[in-house]
Design brief:
- It contains no helices and three strands.
- Strands 1-2-3 form a three-stranded antiparallel beta sheet, with no helix packed on it.
- With about 45 residues, the chain is mostly beta strands.
- β1 and β2 form a beta hairpin.
Length: about 45
């Protein structure tokens, strides 16, 4: 996982990724993960 900065992620759960705005959620058994950053919408008048 090169975008994680070479982190070793040996177990399922939430992990902090340096420079990330959200946690990385990883499930080792099905070998799946998810990362979703929050969005902020602003309106300037």
């Amino acid at each position: 996982m090169p975008w994680t900065g070479g982190l070793v992620l040996p177990e399922s759960g939430d992990h902090v990724v340096p420079g990330g705005l959200a946690l990385l959620h990883l499930e080792r058994e099905p070998d799946e993960g998810g990362y979703q950053e929050p969005n902020v919408w602003m309106r300037h008048c």
